[in-house]
Design a protein that fits this description.
Layout lengths: L13 E2 L13 E5 L8 H13 L5 E3 L1 H7 L3 E5 L9 H8 L7 E5 L4 H14 L3 H22 L5 E9 L2 E3 L1 E2 L1 H7 L2 E2 L4 E2 L5 E2 L1 H6 L4 E4 L6 H9 L8 E5 L1 H4 L7 H12 L13 E4 L1
Parallel strand pairs: 1-2, 4-5, 6-9, 6-12, 8-10, 12-13
Antiparallel strand pairs: 2-3, 6-7, 7-11, 13-14
Length: about 280
């Protein structure tokens, strides 16, 4: 989001997850997961996270000394999901003893409109409000193009999977993305947390399309997990890059809508980007 507003050179630190654009990977890392789950299966990750949260322990650690030494004017954080990144409580504790208190901006969107509001909030906090207004305006125009292209097309019945072992439905802004792209997810929870479900729920939804988008994964791992799933008769299955377009609430959700629209209605919505962040599972 900061880079999209033209202020990437002003970043002084990042979380362990921040990796786009690639230039940010050279920045100091101020937060890391408390659990080492590299290489673990989705089922093992779910069990470990549930146990940690059940005990009240934090899932992330913040390098308070490094954060203080970086002397940020503004800290961007989130208070939407304790599983995805350090929560507001953890960061509030970390900066409590700082001599110079930075402005802490909590981003907690549940819809595309709230993502837009976050862009405005960030632009305001870093002195880039004009750029934020321009970015949001451009993104709205792109969404209008997609909406116009699919308005007369039959809506594709879809199921979006935010996790695969166990299954989680699509929540927050994702069902809205599906609707804008010309689809309908009967299991989605627009503006709400995603919840667990089972394969009977997926089968009974009679999907024409299944989107496999496990939170935190890139296209390669999403593809591996999609190939391990049971088949659902009559459903096209696509693995997608979850991190780039769906799991992270930022400017690229608009590209995620364009991606879904292309998968749902390829004859109506072309894919004009160089990369192909999806894989058809056969």
């Amino acid at each position: 989001m900061v880079h999209s507003l033209g202020a990437g050179s002003e970043l002084v630190g990042r979380s362990h997850e921040c990796d786009y654009p690639s230039s940010v990977t050279s920045l100091p890392i101020v937060s890391r997961p408390a659990l080492d789950l590299d290489g673990a299966s989705p089922e093992a990750i779910d069990a470990a996270v549930a146990e940690r949260m059940g005990s009240g322990d934090t899932l992330y650690s913040i390098d308070e000394v490094l954060l203080r030494d970086l002397r940020p004017d503004v800290i961007l954080t989130q208070n939407l999901c304790r599983v995805c990144a350090p929560s507001g409580d953890e960061l509030t504790r970390a900066v409590r003893k700082f001599t110079l208190r930075p402005e802490v901006l909590f981003l907690t969107p549940r819809s595309i409109r709230e993502i837009e509001n976050n862009i405005f909030d960030v632009g305001r906090a870093i002195g880039r409000l004009n750029e934020a207004e321009s970015l949001v305006g451009t993104n709205r125009n792109r969404l209008a193009v997609v909406r116009s292209a699919v308005k007369d097309a039959p809506r594709r019945r879809a199921v979006f999977l935010e996790w695969t072992q166990p299954l989680f439905c699509g929540g927050h802004w994702v069902p809205e993305m599906i609707s804008l792209a010309g689809g309908e997810d009967p299991l989605g929870r627009a503006g709400e947390d995603s919840v667990r479900m089972d394969w009977d729920d997926v089968v009974n939804a009679r999907p024409e399309v299944i989107i496999v988008s496990p939170c935190g994964y890139r296209i390669e791992r999403s593809t591996e997990l999609a190939r391990q799933m049971p088949q659902v008769r009559g459903a096209e299955v696509y693995a997608v890059d979850a991190n780039a377009y769906f799991a992270r609430p930022g400017p690229r959700v608009v590209e995620g809508v364009e991606l879904l629209a292309h998968l749902f209605h390829p004859d109506l919505v072309p894919w004009s980007h160089r990369d192909q962040p999806w894989a058809r599972i056969t």
